[in-house]
Predict the structure.
Amino acid sequence: MALTPARILVVDDNEDLLKAARLLLKQHFTRVDTEKNPENLPNLLRQEGYDVIMLDMNFTHDVTSGTEGFFWLDKILQIDPAAIVLLITAYGDVEMAVRAVKSGATDFILKPWSNEKLLATLLSALSLRKSKLEVEKLKSQNAIIARDQQARFGEMVGVSPAMREVFATIQKVAATDANVLILGENGTGKELIARSLHQHSNRARQAFISVDLGALSENLFESELFGHVKGAFTDAREDRAGRFEAADGGTLFLDEIGNLSMPMQSKLLTVLQSRQVTRVGSNRPKSVDIRLICATNMPLAEMIARNEFRQDLLYRINTIEVRLPALRERPEDIELLAHHYLRVYTQKYRKRIRDVSPMAIQRMTKYGWPGNVRELQHAMERAVILCERETLQPEDLFLSNAQKTPEKQVNGDTLSLDQFNLDELEKAIIRKVLNKHSGNISKAATELGLTRASLYRRLEKYGL
């Protein structure tokens, strides 16, 4: 039988137990080390990377209280936070072992053990170790990618396939003068994309002029975009250049272009075709050299079908089309964004908040984010301002409850999900599954898709 590639360390002051463990385990795993003195643990862990550590709860200096076991468990996790620790304990110390699991141990083994159960527990622990290392590796890779992208693309953060496609498009298109149309919901970062295109273009040293077309009335449209001469209308007290002239040589970003009326679209199209503007009150056209970037959250194709948007104008503005995904479509970016804004706002407000808890990340990942990245940014800023702890918790995130969720049957009882936050819902489901299995932790954990250690941590968190 082929040996399972794994490095196992057994720490116990009972030499007979160490011999028995070594005899059994070396038949199944490629490397098995034993250690009688826990004082040697720090050096061992720094020299070797063990996949699983079996640790006795009590040593000769402290036969019954388990204090030494807790001490060395804490030391192991300080040296290697991803360590998989299985506690070796006598039957009478099960309650203490459960406490240790809540403190970070993966599981516990009762002695005298059943060889089959011990091997099954070790194989399960090895699978967990592999998953932990893969997650840590992925997080590390994503963090490097995110830092590299931030260096090149500023505030834009993302490692999801959709965002990588956006970044690749920016790199290909930025150096050209092609007109770009950016499509996406409110709050997805359309202006950030426009600024990044400008910053990576040959016009980067020239002006970037942004215009919110949705805020312009028909009366102000021509004056704002094309300029006016003194006396052209009542308040025209002096000659004034419009946004097209201000952007000459640089980039003009027209946001919310879908909000323009048909007459305004016609006037814009005329200027884009001729690349000349005529100030209001003047009859002398002026040539302008701009790179045009437009954006909208409106369905332009549908608007064309309803005669609400000019097809010839769409042809002019969308030489290249960039579609920005909604935040709910790229959940893998939420944790990166949360940590990015944590750094931004802890520096801004001089707060000592070091991390976002896994439960807070879980809540953020499950939330729908109707306001997209802008809503997440505001949620993180508010949380940083109000939080008094070193780690942000789910209750620090004041997320909107406006999204209604259908009612759901759980073990015959109806839970109205729009009346529960995620923590309350999780607590209710755990309680019901425990009741279903008469308090059997192993069966409840299996049904919930959790390890026993994870379930114990939730039981302690919710006081169940």
